[in-house]
C-alpha cells in the first residue's frame, strides 16, 4: 500500500512538473500585435531558436507560415552557440527558404559564442536569408535597419543608421532590446528577443540573473515605447540554460504594421 501511494505521488509530481515546466516550451503561441504604422504588411518574427534546446519541429513552423501568409519573416538572433549543431539548424532554414518569403536576420549573443561564427553566417546566407549587421536596406515603403548584437559589443549605431532614409518609416531588427536605451535616432518600430519573457517567471529573477538595464526596469517582454520609437520584445521560441519554461509560453509573433 505504501509503495503504491509513493508511485501515485511520484506520477502526480511528474505530471505537474510536465504541465508547469515542459508543456510551455511546446505550447507554441502565435502572438499577434497590431501597430498603426499604415504599411499594410504582416511580419512574422521568430526569435531565439536555440536549436540545442528546441522542442518545436520545422513542420509546425511551416504550418504557421502557410496559414498566416506573412509578407516578411524576421529572425532576431540566437540560432545556436554550438558550431557542431549547425546540422540541426539546417532543416529550419531550408523550410523557411522553401516558403519563398523574404527572410531577414540578425545575430545574437549566443551566435557569437561559436569559435567560428562564419560557418553559421555562411549557412544562413546559403539559404538566401539576408543577414543584416549594422546596416540598412531599402524595402517597399519602409527602411529596414539591422543592428548587430548589443550585449557582445557588436552594435554600431552610427553605421546602422548611416544610410537609413529619414523620409521612410524605420523598422529595426536586433537581438538584445537593451540597445533601445542607447539609440538616439528616431525609429517607428523595433523587434528584439533575447530575454525569453523571463523564461522562468519567478520573482526577483533579474536580481539573481542580471540581463541589463531594461529588464531591471521591469521591461522584458511585449510592446513598449520610449522617446525615440515603439519596440517589441519577443518571448522567443527556444530556451537557454534549461529546456524549461515556467508560466511563459514559447512564441512566434505576427506584427501587423
UniProtKB/TrEMBL annotation:
<keyword id="KW-0378">Hydrolase</keyword>
<keyword id="KW-0479">Metal-binding</keyword>
<dbReference type="InterPro" id="IPR051158">
    <property type="entry name" value="Metallophosphoesterase_sf"/>
</dbReference>
<protein>
    <submittedName>
        <fullName>Phosphodiesterase YaeI</fullName>
    </submittedName>
</protein>
<dbReference type="InterPro" id="IPR029052">
    <property type="entry name" value="Metallo-depent_PP-like"/>
</dbReference>
<dbReference type="Pfam" id="PF00149">
    <property type="entry name" value="Metallophos"/>
</dbReference>
<dbReference type="InterPro" id="IPR004843">
    <property type="entry name" value="Calcineurin-like_PHP"/>
</dbReference>
<feature type="domain" description="Calcineurin-like phosphoesterase">
    <location>
        <begin position="41"/>
        <end position="196"/>
    </location>
</feature>
Amino acid at each position: 500500500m505504501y509503495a503504491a501511494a509513493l508511485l501515485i505521488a511520484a506520477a502526480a509530481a511528474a505530471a505537474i512538473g510536465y504541465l508547469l515546466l515542459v508543456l510551455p516550451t511546446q505550447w507554441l503561441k502565435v502572438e499577434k500585435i497590431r501597430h498603426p504604422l499604415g504599411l499594410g504588411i504582416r511580419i512574422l518574427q521568430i526569435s531565439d531558436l536555440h536549436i540545442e534546446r528546441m522542442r518545436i519541429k520545422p513542420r509546425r513552423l511551416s504550418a504557421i507560415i502557410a496559414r498566416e501568409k506573412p509578407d516578411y519573416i524576421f529572425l532576431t538572433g540566437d540560432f545556436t552557440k554550438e558550431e557542431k549543431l549547425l546540422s540541426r539548424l539546417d532543416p529550419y532554414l531550408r523550410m523557411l527558404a522553401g516558403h519563398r518569403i523574404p527572410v531577414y536576420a540578425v545575430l545574437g549573443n549566443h551566435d557569437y559564442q561559436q569559435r567560428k561564427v562564419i560557418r553559421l553566417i555562411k549557412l544562413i546566407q546559403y539559404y538566401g536569408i539576408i543577414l543584416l549587421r549594422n546596416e540598412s536596406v531599402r524595402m517597399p515603403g519602409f527602411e529596414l535597419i539591422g543592428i548587430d548584437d548589443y550585449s557582445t559589443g557588436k552594435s554600431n549605431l552610427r553605421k546602422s543608421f548611416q544610410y537609413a532614409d529619414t523620409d521612410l518609416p524605420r523598422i529595426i531588427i536586433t537581438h538584445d532590446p537593451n540597445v533601445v536605451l542607447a539609440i538616439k535616432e528616431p525609429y517607428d518600430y523595433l523587434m528584439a528577443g533575447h530575454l525569453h519573457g523571463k523564461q522562468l517567471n519567478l520573482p526577483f529573477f533579474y536580481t539573481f540573473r542580471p540581463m541589463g538595464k531594461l529588464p531591471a526596469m521591469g521591461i522584458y517582454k511585449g510592446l513598449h515605447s520610449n522617446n525615440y520609437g515603439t519596440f517589441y520584445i519577443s518571448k522567443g521560441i527556444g530556451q537557454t540554460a534549461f529546456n524549461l519554461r515556467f508560466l511563459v509560453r514559447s512564441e512566434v509573433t505576427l506584427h501587423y504594421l
